[in-house]
């Protein structure tokens, strides 16, 4: 427990963190990787380059400071981040390194304003926060390893099948090299891929949502190839999977994780809203509902640029034909010649009001601008916030503004 003076000092730093938080976390990451380059085997390099990770850490530090006297209020965030830490194999011994580097970055950015009292208070606060993460994650490690088919760390899998789904999206069917059983999962969860492409100094790790219902002897991930643009380089892992991973290739995986999962206890109508490769958790959820809850009505609404990049279109249509409780709708931003769809342009509220039941549970997945637009449209329709489910894949961001 923290004493009242420590709590008071930490909370008093909130305005400073709001102003200098990103600068502090930028310094943190620079110093962390300079002093401990081995940690580049864990962190997502692309998120570092794009500034997403420093911003996410700044927001997390700000939330911890603002709630330091009631940390139970940020436990859901601790659990969400803890899932990712367990999937990445973040271990208790990493926390002192992070703490020392974070305190050093605070001192570096704030200079003389970071008094000894402030640094001491933050050291105590970080210890409490780190203990919360370590405790939550210890349980996750235990559950991942000891569940049927579970394992610790990373396990070798073989690419058993590789299916082209669109011009830019491919599905990979992965089976364990040792032939032993694999862990089940909740629809919406992800596995974590670790690869070391030729010419890369460090290993690269990415989370990919499982795109089929659980219960199969394989894991399926459906990956968009992230090609280089004027604004960002090509995705190292996605291009490796598309171009270098073939049938028979070995890929290391950590056990399934994640908190964005389908609530299967409900029988209310279900609406799945996806954009682009955000279809991956939706297909897993859709298959699960159709298999296990045949009386539950489900509407699947998908947005893509055009038919050339629309993955699994025929498969979804076949599910709709086979299951009368299901309806599917497609919106193309810019249809290609020969494309057919239900709407052109963008999914908007007037169209949603025509095709889905307001009294539904809504699940969102896709690019952040897509999810933000869907979330705000649904809220303007007075859909309750607790009926709208989503997770920002990668460093957390808000959809509310």
UniProtKB/TrEMBL annotation:
Entry EC no(s): 1.14.12.17
Note accompanying the cofactor annotation: Binds 1 heme b (iron(II)-protoporphyrin IX) group per subunit. Binds 1 FAD per subunit.
Domain of life: Bacteria
Site location (Influences the redox potential of the prosthetic heme and FAD groups): 84, 391
Domain Globin as annotated: residue spans: 1-138
GO molecular function: nitric oxide dioxygenase NAD(P)H activity
Binding site for FAD: 190, 392-395
Active-site residues annotated for this sequence: 95, 137
Cofactor(s) the protein needs: heme b; FAD
PANTHER family given in the database record: FLAVOHEMOPROTEIN
Protein name per the record: Flavohemoprotein
């Amino acid at each position: 427990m923290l004493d009242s003076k420590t709590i008071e000092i930490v909370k008093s730093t909130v305005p400073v963190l709001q102003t200098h938080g990103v600068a502090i976390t930028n310094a943190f990451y620079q110093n962390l990787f300079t002093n401990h380059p081995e940690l580049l085997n864990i962190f997502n390099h692309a998120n570092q380059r794009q500034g997403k990770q420093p911003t996410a850490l700044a927001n997390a530090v700000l939330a911890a400071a603002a709630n330091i006297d009631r940390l139970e209020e940020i436990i859901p965030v601790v659990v969400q981040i803890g899932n990712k830490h367990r999937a990445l194999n973040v271990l208790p011994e990493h926390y002192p390194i992070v703490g020392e580097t974070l305190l050093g970055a605070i001192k570096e950015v704030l200079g003389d304003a970071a008094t000894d009292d402030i640094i001491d208070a933050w050291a105590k606060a970080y210890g409490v926060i780190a203990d919360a993460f370590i405790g939550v994650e210890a349980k996750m490690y235990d559950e991942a390893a000891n569940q049927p088919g579970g394992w610790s760390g990373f396990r070798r899998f073989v690419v058993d099948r590789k299916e082209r789904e669109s011009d830019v999206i491919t599905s990979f069917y992965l089976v364990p090299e040792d032939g032993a059983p694999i862990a089940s999962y909740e629809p919406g969860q992800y596995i974590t891929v670790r690869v070391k492409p030729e010419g890369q100094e460090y290993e690269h790790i990415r989370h990919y949502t499982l795109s089929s219902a659980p219960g199969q002897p394989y894991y399926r991930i459906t990956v968009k190839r992230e090609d280089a643009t004027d604004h960002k380089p090509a995705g190292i892992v996605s291009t490796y999977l598309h171009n270098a991973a073939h049938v028979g290739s070995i890929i290391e995986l950590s056990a399934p994780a994640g908190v964005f999962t389908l609530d299967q206890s409900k029988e209310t109508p279900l609406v799945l809203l996806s954009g682009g490769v955000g279809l991956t958790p939706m297909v897993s959820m859709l298959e699960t509902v159709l298999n296990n809850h045949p009386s539950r009505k489900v509407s699947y609404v998908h947005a893509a640029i055009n038919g050339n990049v629309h993955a699994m279109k025929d498969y979804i249509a076949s599910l709709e034909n086979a299951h009368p409780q299901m309806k599917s709708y497609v919106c193309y931003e810019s249809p290609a010649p020969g494309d057919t769809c239900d709407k052109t342009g963008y999914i908007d509220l007037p169209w949603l009001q025509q095709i889905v039941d307001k009294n539904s549970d809504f699940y969102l997945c896709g690019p952040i601008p897509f999810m933000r637009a869907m979330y705000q449209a649904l809220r303007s329709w007075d859909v309750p916030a607790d009926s709208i489910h989503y997770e920002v894949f990668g460093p957390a961001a808000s959809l509310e503004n």
